[in-house]
Write a structure and sequence with these properties.
Keywords: Hydrolase, Membrane, Metal-binding, Metalloprotease, Protease, Transmembrane, Transmembrane helix, Zinc. Its EC number is 3.4.24.-. The protein folds into 3 domains: 191 residues, no CATH class; 93 residues, PDZ domain (Pdz3 Domain, Roll); 82 residues, Roll (Pdz3 Domain). The protein contains 12 helices and 17 strands. The chain has a 5-stranded antiparallel β-sheet. A hairpin with a 2-residue loop joins strand 7 and strand 8. The longest helix is centred in the first third of the chain and has 30 residues.
Length: 456
């Protein structure tokens, strides 16, 4: 099946599920509060098919990129009839609960998806259970000042002898903000030597989530880094790097993972780098010029513009309590990342062009369903569900957060806002959202390879 078809179908299915869950949240709480629901629709526009049960018309509409629940009397332009089933006839706290129910349903979906995934198919990087071999040590880090070098094998870390990376991470978290003895094994002129030193584990994270791998980047695999996909218009493509190329070294330094490569590029401050590429039986150098750009998760840095194949991993099935714990951690961390991106956008510390619309989502879902296993697509669905929930809570009229904001304002004033004022607010917000959506669509289209040659 062509990728475009796979991407389109997968996007429609994923967004359909997200919207169904979101609108069901509004629907079920509205019903529990006694609000009459006139329409429950997946999609917008012309009604294609459906059925009516009670007061509600359940329908599938023409444009499958969204959906809605229409409650009686929820439109500010509608005249109130005094019907107790109308949305506006209910207390503000009930209307707020109905507004919160949609995003909350998306959060529950993300939690359930990841809990189920961890119970059935939890992928764990193999390097965690292997020897603690260092792939790269950032310059001017505490590890570099302690004399640790790339290629060193850690044979003692505090009280642990021959630790695995998993054991080392746990011990480092316990020893944070203290100095620990460390012994490494190193090849010097063909001979194996052991060198002992001390390492201060300073916690510079803002949230107290210390990670030893920021100063000691592990060797995730013994094989070279392999390119999975080269992004159009980025330095890697311009230098001639292609999908499935192996990167044997960067400026003569052997690096085996994306984190090691990224750390090295930051250390070089964007200077041109020579990559030694292996393509089939050919080995040749190429020169790339890194650019300062967003990595897609709100983090700025020097980039080459490619995705690498994941390092080797094994599959585990976690018991329910551990699966719940991992799911909560996943969703909290990624919610924090999403909020950070939103904050950067509003404070102009990040480029709005990094946002993706339906075309970008289709590309991601297409790639996810093309990958082996369930983890890529389930993880992506959880992230999309989190995004949908958080974005709908933004205090923008028409969105759930905007409705809740207006209800809070009315509650503070102890009276309803003027109907004409609310109509104007919703109309203005609708125009802004349509223009914003059009911009995102154009931004999506401009990223297609068809237009890449038009860019400088």
């Amino acid at each position: 099946m062509p990728f475009a078809v796979t991407a389109t179908l997968s996007m429609l299915v994923v967004l359909g599920i997200m919207v169904l869950v979101h609108e069901f949240g509004h629907f079920i709480v509205a019903k529990l509060c006694g609000v009459r629901v006139e329409v429950f629709s997946i999609g917008f526009g012309t009604r294609l098919l459906g059925f009516r049960r009670g007061d509600t018309d359940y329908r599938l509409s023409l444009l499958p990129l969204g959906g809605y629940v229409k409650m009686s009397g929820e439109n500010p332009a509608e005249q109130r009839t005094g019907d107790p089933g109308e949305f506006a006839a209910h207390p503000r706290w009930q209307r707020m609960l109905i507004g919160l129910a949609g995003p909350f349903a998306n959060f529950i979906l993300a939690f359930v998806l990841m809990t189920g995934l961890y119970m059935m198919h939890n992928e764990v990087d193999q390097y965690l259970s292997g020897p603690a071999i260092v792939d790269f040590v950032p310059q001017n880090s505490a590890a570099a000042h302690s004399g640790i070098q790339h290629g060193d094998r850690i044979v003692q870390f505090d009280h642990d002898h021959n630790p695995t990376w998993e054991q080392l991470r746990i011990r480092a978290a316990l020893d944070v903000n203290s100095t620990v003895p460390i012994t490494v094994e190193r090849q010097v002129n063909g001979e194996t030597q052991q060198i002992s030193t001390h390492l201060f584990l300073a916690d510079s994270s803002k949230d107290g989530d210390f990670d030893i791998e920021t100063m000691l980047i592990p060797r995730f695999q013994s094989t070279p880094l392999r390119v999975q996909h080269v992004e159009s218009g980025y330095p890697a493509q311009k230098a001639g790097v292609k999908d499935n190329d192996y990167i044997l070294s960067v400026n003569g330094v052997e690096l085996h993972s994306t984190p090691a490569l990224v750390a090295y590029l930051q250390q070089q401050s964007g200077a041109p780098a020579t990559l030694t590429i292996k393509r089939g039986t050919q080995v040749f150098p190429v020169t790339v010029h890194p650019i300062w750009a967003d990595d897609g998760a709100g983090h700025m840095g020097y980039r080459l513009g490619f995705n690498a194949y994941l390092p080797p991993f094994k599959v585990e099935q976690l018991p329910f309590p551990q699966a719940v714990k991992h799911s909560v951690t996943f969703n909290l961390h990624n919610s924090g990342y999403i909020l950070d991106v939103v904050h950067r956008l509003f404070t102009r510390h990040s480029n709005v062009q990094q946002l993706q619309g339906p075309i970008g989502i289709a590309r991601q879902t297409g790639e996810a369903v093309s990958m082996p296993g369930w983890q890529p697509i389930i993880g992506l669905m959880a992230l999309i569900s989190l995004n949908l929930g958080i974005m709908n809570l933004l205090p923008i009229p028409i969105l759930d957060g905007g409705m809740i904001l207006l209800l809070l304002v009315e509650g503070t004033l102890r009276r309803d806002l003027n109907q004409q004022l609310k109509e104007r607010i919703y109309q203005a917000a609708f125009i802004v959202l349509i223009l914003f959506f059009a911009f995102i669509m154009l931004n999506d289209v401009s990223k297609l390879s068809l237009f890449s040659k038009l860019k400088p």
